[in-house]
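Need tokens for this chain, all 250 residues.
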Amino acid sequence: MHRSKAAANQWRAAGEARPARRVGQKLPLLPKRRSLAQGGRRARTKHKEIVLYGRHSGESYLKIDSMLMAPSEIPTSYGRLRRVVERDLIPFAEMNADPRVMEFFPHPWSCEESQVAFESIEIGFSERGFGVYALECYKEFAGIVGLSVPTFEAYFTPCVEILWRLLPRFWGKGLASEAGAAVLHMAFQTLRMPQIVAFTTAGNLKSIRVMERLGMVLDTTPYFDHPTVMDVRLKRHILYRAIPKPYMVK
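Here are the structure tokens for all 250 residues:
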């Protein structure tokens, strides 16, 4: 498989949309159009809602109010969640190349795979009005936390998922739980989303504990085989869901 195609497939397995790319085409680090953080305008603002349909069933859909936008920054006790910027690429690639971080992925990512994913984060946030943030801890890049729209087909898609990934030196400090809680609160109160999901390989107990600390509940059909993961050791995934608390519903 060509490296670019493999990179896109691996990012889809992690829950992010695959960026449009042709074989041999070199993309700029960040899109040339102005992002929301730079004062750019959001795509599809003429519509009052975005409707995501399942590919195989017209009855499977998710409505997202396109006039609501996530903030470019969310404060935390250790620092902040913010939009990714160009200087984040080096620590982002370092994180994705670390075998400890990528234990439950088919393999650590190459620099090219990380760049494809990095571009996808910025483009996705600009197009949807929400997405994945850089987690900044004491002014240092600590990892990523945010919202994504999975592109694969499963019984629970289309959906919006919450995801996180941190550099090992920031593990064990409660950062993923705190940042994840801030993102969920924003998703329900600001974006008015009806539910958020999270999933990981069944053996990833650390991520499962974070899901439970966030108050997420094991789905009634908790297990599924991830359609883009070929490694039999990692294919079986577990699904959790979160819904707004009563005080969040207006």
